[in-house]
Amino acid sequence: MNYRVFLTILILAALSAKCFGQPVRISPIPKNWYQLDPATDSVAGISLFKAYRLLRNMQSTTVIVAVIDNGVDIDHEDLKNVIWNNQREIPDNGIDDDHNGYADDVHGWNFRGAKDGTIIENEQAGATQFYKAWNGKFKRADSSNLSAADQKMYAVYKRAEKVYLEHLTSKDSNEIKYAYNLNFSSGGLIADYNFNSSNTHYGSPYFKLSPNLSHGTHVAGIIAAQRNNGIGIDGIADNVKIMPIVASMAVGDERDEDVANAIRYAVDNGARIISMSFSKLFSADKKLVDDAIRYAEKKMYLLFTVLVTTAWISTIRRTIITLLRYIWMASAPPTLLRLAGTGHCLTTGWRILILITEK
């Protein structure tokens, strides 16, 4: 049947039903739609309940999941019992009790934090960061005299310059004030930040979220909201601890140093799985992130769910040991692997599943 004819019939049927007092009934979307099964429930979910049936006779081991994002509400009624607790740290004594370089990091770390934990939620866009970082080298450069490597960087610089200049006439006040403002710097607002990329111990152990910073809490809830408690939703996994790490924001793009330091913090403090959601086209200091990913690879296997900058793609590809080796063991629940495979939100950008295993 011609699709236009079919559509016309549907519209007429709906109008007729309304005219004759028979309203069209649309079934409500189940709250847990993403956990359902396409075959059993006719909903394109991840078949979570089938996975639990498959695992019902297997012993579970608690897995620490780092959520590198724009903050997690650690006091949320559906999350407070699943937040990671650093047993080696004494709260609020101002001392680095476990000697990991981060004092009072009882529940994770805030690399975007002021001293009191307020998350600095504004940042320059990736194009602005890249243009500012490389402008001194390439502004008056003759591309014909550059090395092959510099020519590649110069091409990226010109693209970043174009994006930056195009946004100078933006009507969005946040873009003008923060994202595409060469003079804006969040560094002076972040505790102990000294504008040196070798400094990895800055920020705050506390998390003060504004209403604009809800994404990390949303992600943490999908992964691990306490199950079967009658509150909100049920998370995917029932035996994980969420390690909140702040490296993202509300306006602008992530700084490479924050992302790199967040990955290293997660690895060094016991995370076996890392969830990140980033999307940007320009990476001003991508080597920092490259090195952090390689560091993670050497230390342990990790699972990343990533919406990631295209600038990091080549490095991430090299870290993929295999995408076909599903880990059917208690230390890496396949439910989380399945979640990572589907992605936890719909957005533009790259989505990559990375499974890093010990060599």
In words, what does this structure look like?
This protein has 359 residues and is an alpha/beta fold. The C terminus is likely disordered. It folds into two domains: 250 residues, Rossmann fold (3-Layer(aba) Sandwich), CATH 3.40.50.200; 62 residues, no CATH class. Helix 4 crosses helix 5. Helix content is 34%, strand content 9%. A six-stranded mixed beta sheet has the order 2-3-1-4-5-6, sandwiched between helices. The chain is globular and about 65 Å long.
The rough form would be described as globular
CATH topology of the largest domain: Rossmann fold
Our count of domains comes out at: 2
Number of helices: 11
Which structural class should the secondary elements be placed in? Answer: alpha/beta
CATH superfamily membership of the largest domain: Peptidase S8/S53 domain
Number of beta strands: 6
User: Largest sheet, order of strands side by side?
Assistant: 2-3-1-4-5-6
Summarize the topology.
Elements lengths: L2 H17 L18 H4 L6 H8 L7 E7 L39 E2 L15 H13 L9 H19 L6 H7 L35 H10 L15 E7 L9 H13 L4 E4 L9 H14 L2 E7 L4 H7 L14 H9 L7 E7 L3
Parallel strand pairs: 1-3, 1-4, 2-3, 4-5
Antiparallel strand pairs: 5-6
Helix pairs in contact: 4-5, 8-9
